[in-house]
TrEMBL record:
Signal peptide: none annotated. It holds the Pfam family DFP. This is Phosphopantothenoylcysteine decarboxylase. Transmembrane segments: none annotated. It comes from the Bacteria. SUPFAM superfamilies: CoaB-like. Residues 2-209 form the DNA/pantothenate metabolism flavoprotein C-terminal domain.
Length: 216
């Protein structure tokens, strides 16, 4: 079994010294890579800029990228050969329309940046998903959480979507713990306890394995 896993933030350059990014640390994605590898699966971890070291567990190959476009190119290369796709990356939705060759100098009192939409990695690959392939997406919502997550699952052709809660203290960006709710395409909902990201990862992997090998 081969797992394609995106993780971490993306950085979208503005000039040689600046970028647009986000607060994703990659912790959840890296924990998932370890948890899949512990089940004997081959993992291609496509990681945006994360301060975490490359996982050393056998079976994990880490590909470092910076931008959404690079993450898409790396993911597209392995997607057809992977049995499971997990999109844990916090991909920047937009990037600066132009990347300045030289450092942008300070001038007026305001500065307006034009941004253009990035490729949606999960949605684009979702259109190429074969029936035997299994896709897991993530969502972080602050309003109408379940409805938005369900809508994303459908739009991106996910089999499962993992909804992150920001309401619970100790969950989300930068924390070592996380509280998630998982929805499937049939409308089933599984609530996970607030627990370490490593435990959430192990729970998610065993849930994915149960979908892949249903016991009668
Ligand atoms: N995703 C992706 N490529 C993008 C944006 C998102 O692969 N350019 C993936 C994420 O890795 C995640 C899922 O899509 O698994 C949902 O990401 P999210 O940011 O919640 O969804 P968006 O469609 O970008 O919607 P919005 O940010 O407006 O809520
Ligand atoms: Ca987004």
């Amino acid at each position: 079994m081969h797992v394609l896993l995106t993780a971490g933030p993306t950085y979208e350059p503005l000039d040689p010294v600046r970028f647009l990014g986000n607060r994703s640390t990659g912790k959840m994605g890296y924990a998932l890579a370890e948890a899949f590898a512990a089940e004997g699966m081959q993992v291609t971890l496509i990681s945006g800029p994360s301060a975490l070291p490359d996982p050393v567990s056998p079976g994990i190959r880490t590909v470092r990228v910076e931008t959404a476009a690079q993450m898409f190119a790396a993911a597209a290369e392995v997607a057809a050969a992977a049995d499971v796709w997990v999109f844990a990356a916090a991909v920047a939705d937009y990037r600066p329309a132009e990347v300045a060759v030289d450092k942008i100098k300070k001038s007026g009192d305001t500065l307006t940046l034009e941004l253009v939409k990035n490729v949606d990695i999960a949605a684009t690959l979702g259109q190429r998903k074969r029936p035997e392939q299994f896709a897991v997406g993530f969502a972080l919502e602050t309003t109408n959480e379940l409805a938005h997550a369900q809508d994303k699952l459908r739009r991106k052709n996910f089999d499962l979507i993992v909804l992150n809660s920001l309401r619970d203290a100790g969950a989300g960006f930068g924390h070592d713990t996380n509280k998630v709710t998982v929805l499937d395409a049939a409308g089933q909902i599984v609530n996970f306890e607030l627990q370490s990201k490593a435990d959430v990862a192990r729970g998610l992997v065993s849930l994915v394995l149960r979908y892949l090998n249903p016991t009668p």
